[in-house]
Amino acid sequence: MKSSVIIFPGSNCDRDIDVALRKFGFKNQMVWHNETKMPKSDLIVLPGGFSYGDYLRCGCIASKSKIIKSIIDYASSGGLIIGICNGFQILLETGLLTGALLTNKYLKFICKNVFVKVNNSENKYFKNIKKNVLELHIAHNDGNYFCTDNELKSLEDNNQVAASYCNNNGEIDEENNPNGSIKNIAGIFNKKKNIVGMMPHPERVIEKNLSSKDGSYFFENLLNNMN
Amino acid sequence: MKVEIIVTLKNGVLDPQGKAIQQTLNGMNFSEAKDVRQGKYFNIEIDIEDEKKAKLKAEEMCKKLLANLVIEDYKIL
Question: How many domains does chain A have?
């Protein structure tokens, strides 16, 4: 399976996701944001980081990059896209996903492991995943997911909430909401479920000595579902 | 002509920075500061002489880039 990671000025998790994708068997290539045409890909990843120094709004300037038009075309033909952290912010700014990410409720940059519960397994990303409560890493200042009441209803009605912050038993409550996100939302899908955006970084926890290996279940499972 | 634009978070959208500023003002004995909303200010030199046309162009810039209409409102001064 061929994957492509897009690099924007200020991306800083592009190498990490490259290592993770290769480790689990993807043939990965890196694509510079100034390209106009996507190379043939079975999966596109928008990595974490601070594209354009988070100027104006996180992910906003990157969402106007030359490569984006080709990514939107790829998305509308059903191609798989993952946006992690800043990549999630970019997907929201392009309009491929619904809502926005605000500054964390308590104004702190949060860098720690959290638990997230997988809410919907009827998709390429989470179908048959070994565990439905995963210990993943977050590192962000603007991860407070927001949308209108109508948008939230539509997300819930269409099973578009991908993952929610929870405790290690999978209980979703305010105590385990690190950043103030509506309904503890950590990640969402588009309607067709070919696009997923999430604040947690699965690529940072792919080996036991990286504090958790739950990210490996995500990548192994995705590759299995794509074959 | 020069066009000035202010972008703020919509009413109802949590503005933790505004809240922190308000609490600091209160702590400095400005107890009159009841609510603070923080925003962004843009001063754009637009190469159009006609004021109405320049402001229309500025509005297009707000909708397409300067404001995220999911969470923000814009005002052209």
Answer: 1
The C-alpha atoms of residue A139 and residue A109 are separated, in whole angstroms, by 7
The third-level CATH classification (topology) of the domain covering B2-76 is: Mth169; Chain: A , (3.30.1280)
Can you say how many angstroms the Cα of residue A27 is from the centroid of all Cα atoms in its chain? 20
Contact between B23 and B66 under an 8 Å Cβ cutoff? The reply is no
Tens digit of each residue's pLDDT (9 = 90 or more) over B53-75: 999 999 999 999 999 999 999 99
**ipTM score of complex:** 0.84
Give me the CATH number covering residue A154. Answer: 3.40.50.880
Tell me whether residues A102 and B14 touch, CB distance under 8 A.
yes
For A23-67, the pLDDT digits (tens) are 999 999 999 999 999 999 999 999 999 999 999 999 999 999 999
Helix (H) or strand (E) holding A161: strand A161-166
Q: Return d(Cα B8, Cα B10) in angstroms, integer.
A: 6
**How many residue contacts between A and B have a Cβ separation below 8 Å?**
35
> Are A60 and B16 within 8 A, CB to CB?
no
Nearest CA to CA, how far is A107 from chain B (Å)? 7
